[in-house]
């Protein structure tokens, strides 16, 4: 029953939030275009519930700067001050509201990762695919703004096995603390997609 209510909450809350913050989304889209060029959105295939792939959407945070041979420069050389701020504030993730509306993602759930990681999950970590990936992740309850992959997967597998209203509420409250710490620590420097 909770999973049905969770999807209803996801749909309603993401629709309302998208409408309410649409002016902010428009302003960010313009700033991305001016500061980083086009396309405005970064799209990448990610693996979600039931190991089904989908295309995640985020605001781009890097330029398309290339070397003399036409090869993209390393990530750290393509970041701008604006891109770092956008990522450290997590505002780059606002377009994921569309993924939530479409049913690819949930407000709260495991971080959707690219399919290249699929062969590396331990059997106990596969529980992360029992639920939709989320905009807000289960590791938000951890006191540290940056955690190890093993710890992240531990939180996500536990969430997949024991999703509940109480767990969602703790995670939702924890995200505000972690966003503040990520901004303080320049989370944009940390290379985790």
Which parts are unreliable, with pLDDT below 50 for 5 consecutive residues or more? Answer: 183-193
Gap between N and C termini, in Å?
32 Å
Helix fraction, binned, reads 40-55%
| Count of individual beta strands | 4
Class from secondary-structure proportions = alpha+beta
Largest sheet: 2 strands, antiparallel
Helical region count?
A: 7
Average of the residue pLDDT scores: 88
- Elements, N to C (H/E): HHEEHHHEEHH
Strand arrangement across the biggest beta sheet:
1-2
Instruction: Note the beta-strand portion.
Output: 5-15%
Radius of gyration of CA atoms, rounded to a whole number: 17 Å
Q: Could you give the topology of this structure?
A:
Elements: H1 2-20, H2 22-36, E1 41-47, E2 53-59, H3 75-78, H4 81-88, H5 96-102, E3 105-108, E4 133-136, H6 149-162, H7 165-184
Parallel strand pairs: 3-4
Antiparallel strand pairs: 1-2
Helix pairs in contact: 1-5
Give a description of the structure.
With 193 residues, this protein is of the alpha+beta class. The chain has 7 helices and 4 strands. Strands 1-2 form a two-stranded antiparallel sheet. Helix 1 packs across helix 5 (96-102).
Quick summary of this structure?
With 193 residues, the protein is an alpha+beta fold. It is 45% helix and 11% strand. The chain is globular and about 55 Å long.
């Amino acid at each position: 029953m909770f999973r049905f209510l969770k999807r209803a909450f996801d749909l309603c809350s993401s629709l309302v939030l998208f409408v309410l913050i649409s002016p902010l989304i428009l302003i960010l889209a313009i700033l991305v275009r001016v500061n980083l060029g086009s396309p405005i959105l970064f799209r990448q295939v990610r693996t979600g519930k039931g190991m089904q792939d989908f295309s995640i959407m985020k605001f781009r945070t890097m330029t398309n700067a290339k070397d003399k041979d036409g090869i993209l420069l390393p990530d750290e050389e393509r970041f701008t001050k604006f891109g770092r701020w956008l990522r450290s504030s997590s505002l780059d993730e606002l377009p994921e509201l569309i993924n939530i509306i479409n049913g690819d993602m949930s407000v709260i759930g495991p971080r959707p990762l690219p399919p290249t990681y699929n062969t590396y999950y331990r059997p106990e970590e596969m529980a992360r695919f029992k639920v939709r990936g989320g905009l807000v992740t289960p590791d938000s309850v951890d006191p540290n703004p940056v955690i190890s992959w093993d710890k992240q997967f531990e939180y996500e597998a536990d969430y997949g096995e024991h999703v509940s209203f109480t767990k969602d509420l703790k995670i939702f409250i924890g995200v505000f603390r972690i966003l503040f710490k990520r901004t303080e620590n320049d989370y944009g420097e940390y290379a985790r997609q």
